[in-house]
Amino acid sequence: MSKTALVTGAASGLGYELAFLLIKDDYNLVLVDIDAPKLKEVKQFFNKTYKNTVTILVKDLSQPDVAQEIYNEVKQLPVIDVLVNNAGFGLFGTFANTDWKRESEMLHLHVLTTTHLTKLILPAMISRESGKILNISSLAAFQPGPMMSMYYASKSYILSFSEAIANELKGTGVTVTALCPGPTKTLFQQTVSSNCSENKISFNMACPTDVAQYGYNAMKRGKTVAIPGVFNKFLSTIPRFVTRNMATRIVRNIQEKNRA
Ligand SMILES: NC(=O)c1ccc[n+]([C@@H]2O[C@H](COP(=O)([O-])OP(=O)(O)OC[C@H]3O[C@@H](n4cnc5c(N)ncnc54)[C@H](OP(=O)(O)O)[C@@H]3O)[C@@H](O)[C@H]2O)c1
């Protein structure tokens, strides 16, 4: 019997690629995104090729109680075997000048919705002794990020939360994976740069198909932390070799050069 996977932010980028891998692996899909037209296109595209059920939920995941709403809607479906907390966006600028409304939406999306959806869907996985959770963190999780302070801090939260509950869940049959991509060619990079001139990050830019495949394989193996790419793995270790202050300064230089 087909299993079911719920993917947030599935209308584009990594979420779309992960949904594609899941349906190819015979999962039925529950796809959640804020972008209704794109989500419908994705459903139509999948329906043309695959017989699996594709349910779409148009939701703004930055709003209070949205996780509970989603849970109430999917409760009637067969169990959720895979949960992918992927939706996210970035904001650039000094903390004193960035827009609080957008920032609080980002915190809600990255921190509260990710945590609440996990809280709601996890108990059934534990009682079935089977389930996979894939949380999309970032290379940004490994050190503070001046000019994108709340984005970096929220991605650190996702990494720390994922590692902690992965440990608690050992032996239950449920695994948690934090995927920590470096810069990846998706709409994300354009959106981060929307308030300034064009994004100049071009080196070390990964293809979303490869990043999703890497994260998917890691999730299937139950790996706790997955960093795609040798160079990114190296970058994630820098805070171990230089002072935290120095690592923070390096990030500021990179962000200012590339986005300011
Ligand atoms: N691309 C990178 O360089 C990179 C690196 C490290 C980590 N990541 C992480 O990877 C994840 C996926 O990003 P991506 O690169 O695939 O970017 P993307 O192409 O922009 O995809 C993100 C998807 O999430 C949706 N979304 C954003 N806010 C939402 C909300 N409030 N409610 C529901 N859906 C929402 C977006 O819809 P709209 O387009 O309509 O907003 C979009 O469809 C994010 O968590 C991001 O932080 C990305």
TrEMBL record:
Alphabetical list of InterPro entries matching this protein: NAD(P)-bd_dom_sf, SDR_fam
Keyword Oxidoreductase: yes
Similarity comment: Belongs to the short-chain dehydrogenases/reductases (SDR) family.
Highest taxon in the source lineage: Bacteria
Keyword Chloroplast: no
Name listed for the protein in its UniProt record: SDR family oxidoreductase
Pfam families: adh_short (PF00106)
Protein species of origin: Flavivirga algicola
Keywords on record: Oxidoreductase
